[in-house]
Amino acid sequence: MSDERERSRRGVLRTAAGVTLGAGIAAGVPAGTAAAATAGKGEGEGEARKPGPVEVAVLLYEGFTALDAVGPYESLCRVPGVQVTMVAVKAGPVLTDTRDMEIVATKSLRQVPRPDVMVIPGGGGAGMYAVLENTRILDWVRRAHRHTLWTTSVCAGAAILGKAGLMRGVPATTHWALRDYLKEVGAIDTPGRFVESGKIITAAGISAGIDMGLYLASRLSDERVGRALELALEYDPEPPFGTGSPGKTDAGTRTLALKLLADAAP
After folding, report:
1. Of 57, 137, 155, 187, which is the active-site residue?
2. Is 155 among the residues known to form the active site?
3. How far apart are CA 264 and CA 224, in angstroms?
């Protein structure tokens, strides 16, 4: 595609999006902050929200799984009145679990001590084990959780919430291969693409972060915005094999799936 045609295509998309979004706001679609102020209640209940956009912090750490972070990001970054920021112990590029992709954290944990929404992705390999022993990250998760409207995880991110001591007695889900771990941290293993319990929302494996993100988008605004974002992302899965959950396949496929995940995350 030529540069001129690409600029034209982007201009059409921006124009269409601007007209549609402007019409939605004029028709009463909330800007995000009002709805979010009455969202998930927890330890921070009753505290006044700081003015400005709803701040969503997506935690990055060495060895996180890319789609765990990017799925919720794409679901939330276009919600009116919401600002999504990638954060890490230090600002800068962070390697994913496959070690061949980086995503930039634009702020450090110190710069975002009290996000309104916290998204904790899962990971693989040595990076996942390391983060479970990283006191700086675990302390940040605990402190931030006291003030969040929503505390969320994707896939093995539930293990991080569990290690931080936030999952005891909480109905939750995670990747199908890790669900026994939920019992170890005192959570209540609950099947589902995502599970909401108070202000904690946990998503199942990897791609389920998109489902959770779209639902969270509706809670930070309203269902109309959630529906529109699902369409904007053209999130209409038709998987080619129908083997997307362990109950729909055989033992050999499950074993191979785990091997492929392990081999890709040294």
Report:
1. 155
2. yes
3. 38
